Amino acid sequence: MATKFEQVDEAEKDAPGVEPVAVPVGGQEITTYWRKIHHDDLNPAVTEDVFTVEILVPVVGTEEYETGETNEDGSLVLATRPCVTHERREVDLGKESMDKFLEALKPFLAVSREPQPIPAQGRKRKSKASA
User: Residue 66 burial by CB count (10 A; 0-12/13-18/19+): exposed, middle or buried?
Assistant: First the structure.
């Protein structure tokens, strides 16, 4: 979760979410108090009603597959082809950022469908994503 820390006065040390931090200074230890604040990743000023949103991001890469042919030594011939894999990401959004995100997705959601089961295919080995 997107987090920032705000130093608070000692008078607020017992408030919810406030934690003491001991800092050594010149042979002494001084205690300061900090509040952890969750915020919108796009607009850190927004700290109310912030939710973590999980995003599955497509990544273009390559994969190895067996061609069905055999090498001279009897092993299977491997080749590569483009593929799309997915990277799981998270972003913390307040209401305004969430509305913008959903608005940007609208044309894609309008033409989307339920995912189909993945058919059994030949053995694949995924390699790094293309740059």
Answer: middle
Render pLDDT for 49-88 as a digit per residue (tens, 0 to 9): 999 999 999 999 999 999 999 999 999 999 999 999 999 9
| Count of other CB atoms within 10 angstroms of residue 46 | 19
Q: pTM score, two decimals? A: 0.60
DSSP string covering 109-125: HHT--PPPPPPP-S-EE
* Torsion angle in degrees (nearest 10) through CA of 95, 103, 54, 43: -40
Q: Which of 97, 101, 104, 5 is CA-nearest to residue 42? A: 97
Residue 131, SS3 per DSSP: coil
* Phi–psi pair at 2, nearest 5 degrees: -65, 125
Q: State the DSSP H helix or E strand holding residue 101, giving kind and residue range, or none if neither.
A: helix 95-110
Exposure string of 71-95, with b = 16+ CB inside 10 Å and e = fewer, is eeeeeeeeeeeebeeeeeeebbbbe
